[in-house]
Amino acid sequence: MNRALRLIAQLGIASLATCNAAFGETASVVSIATPRGVQQGFILIKPDHAIASVILFAGGSGSLRLNREPPPQVGPYAFVAGNFLVRSREKFAAHDFMVAVIDAPSDQSNGMSASFRLGSDHAIDIGAVADYMKRHADVPVWLVGTSAGSWSAARGAIAAGRDGIAAGSIDGLVLTSTVTRIAPGSAFAKAFPDIASNYPDGVISMALPEIKVPTLIVSHSEDACEYTPAVDAQSLAKRLTQAAKVEIALLSGGDPPRSTPCEAYAAHGYYGIETQAVDKIADFITTNSKHAP
Asked: Does this model's pTM top 0.70?
């Protein structure tokens, strides 16, 4: 793996030997053609009576290397297999959410770079998945991203109503362990100078005032990753000037880390408090969905 890809993988990477269990009985691997002519794969979990849908964006490269042979599994060499959202997918489904865990599209064989996540092609693919979810369950669709996946979730919310995403197809946004700092001279800045120049404050530098939907910002008070400090949550919230509602959830505690600070099995990935984190997200989604029960 070259240096640039190692840096992408750092934001959300996990042990290769973990989290490769079979999905639940209602889960499957779906691949759809998007309007730009690529295949977009994702894990789909369908509860009996969905009250909302969540599209989950893992950090790192976002590449799940999905195995479509039964039982469907995350590929054994997927660096994001243990990502917080990937390993917590069944916890979201337990809240009666229909779940889509996004894989890298077919034209991004090495995974999704920050540049791709910020581009219009990615927005088009997100729109296609949102349309699929709406067709299969007439319930609100929320975008949920963690770490490098926060670029994707924010991009989809910004693009709602344009850039290939139909108006009204995105109902809410959740950003967890959001990328908010790219220090000059950092490894990421050296690998991706254009991103560092145009988005020095990470997601905060994006066109967040264009987001209209309710937004939850989740951070871990002990997140030691240099790109995602919890102290930046207030600055992130202040940029969401047009969002219907903005709330910050600052979590703490968990198990002792068994990965480096920017990887999945540390405070950055809510290690040991996954249930608490998902419950907080689910409560916000349920409370702020247009068709909440």
From this structure: yes
